[in-house]
Amino acid sequence: MLDIINVEKTFNPGTINEKKALNGINLHLDEGDFVTVIGGNGAGKSTMLNMIAGVYPVDCGNIIVDGVDVTRLPEYKRAKYLGRVFQDPMTGTAADMQIEENLALAARRGKRRTLRAGITAKERKEYKELLKILDLGLEDRLTAKVGLLSGGQRQALTLLMATLKKPKLLLLDEHTAALDPKTAKKVLDITEDIVAKNNLMTIMITHNMADAIRVGNRLIMMHEGQIVVDVKGEEKKKLTIEQLLQMFEASSGTQMTSDKVMLSK
Amino acid sequence: MGALPGSVSQGLIWGIMAIGVYITYRILDVADLTVDGSFATGGAVAVVLILNGCNLWLAMIAAFIAGLLAGAITGLLHTFMGIPPILAGILTQLSLYSINLKIMGKANQSVNVNQTDLLISLRWVKEFALHNPLITVGIVLVVLIAALYWFFGTEMGCGIRATGANLNMSRAQGINTNFNKVLGIMLSNGLVAFSGAFLAQYQGFADVKMGQGAIVIGLAAVIIGEALFGKIFKNFALRLLSVAFGSIIYYIVVQAVITMGLDANLLKLLSAAIVAIFLAIPYWKKQFTEKHMSHSKGGKANA
Fold this sequence. Notes:
The complex is a heterodimer of chains A (265) and B (303). Chain A has 265 residues and is of the alpha/beta class. Chain A has ten helices and ten strands.
């Protein structure tokens, strides 16, 4: 379960660059919910994910993951509960380290790092099997530096790392946006596979409206730091892109001009 | 040629120091200037303890611990007080100058090899015995490389490497990046001080200025090692070894140019210039390829 209770965040308060990024967000997710998040630039989508992950402190409100109030925990301690994949393929992996080393780091998420071996022979076998499932040819390149991989391969690897230790909540911040369409589809397929297999509670930000409608069991739309649309279950399945655009205009009171282009792509 | 064993000995001693620099500069991706101070701290601690009749290896360990503490100060200045790492290092380095004076009671303190037993001395460089610096420091260097190879393969060591490689990813994977930065800087300065303790015995004195410009010599060793052996030495232990080789080569070259008649006063200028050029080469290379790419391919391909 995830509860976001009345979370607010203002960047650069008291300056001319003051920006209210989150304006009293409330969100409740149940076990196994897969939520897609859409909204224009500056709507607060990424900020919401970063607040959950603890990248910056919140101004007020509470974030409760699986019954634990994580609001005051530093980012690295919250990592115990969270799996994260970022928009930039460079962010989620260590380029200078080997594929298996990256996976081994992820396997120890939430555990104390001791003087035991950083990676064991048993793990290597497991990773090989897991990489085989990705079907990207990575299973034969365990000791290759991650910096040698393509963006799509890196995102798939980051996904595997984020879910290697089953997280309470998986956060996907436009993780296919930097990829070409074919690779993006492949990474999204892998995402759906992994989420379904592990029955993961997931929040996925996307710019692709069709994906937002097709994937997951719930869709929320954000605007100016608030959740303005929240569609679930059967209603979501029947949703069309046109309806979604209308909903946006109705709730935000603005025409979707530049956003429309981006969102409907 | 008569000076060769001496140059190699110095290179070996500074090689330990350079491995310390490698840990911050290459693994943690931080240029830590504490080393100029902690190198002298190591020498000062060892010499004073030896003069007071302390066991030699115990004095070496004490020097190592003093270095760890110096590193901890810089690490905390950076992580706890938010001071940029370079400035944090400079602050510690400066304060260590006073501390080193206090440790020794004066600007330099000598240990006479005729009166005191020492682990190594430049007087023994041509002797075939264990206390020949080539042998003692050589063995210690190999042991240290083995220990570091083991350590950086552990969960904790991998945490330090990940911290240096990618902060965002590290935190997302539950790694306390601040703790690991402090740990890495401590380990680095521990090695640097250990190396300073060897040099003080080798030359027969510790001096508050003995670490002046140490960071540049350390960087020179790292860069020379990478330039000459980077293509063939991929394994982590071999990379550390290449840093030590880099240091040895640096001292052989220095000895050679002095023998050829270079004014020794110009040595530091020369060292700095060499390091500056070698640091610039990868940058120039990148600029050149990017220019070249944008002309031929119309920008970097996005995979």
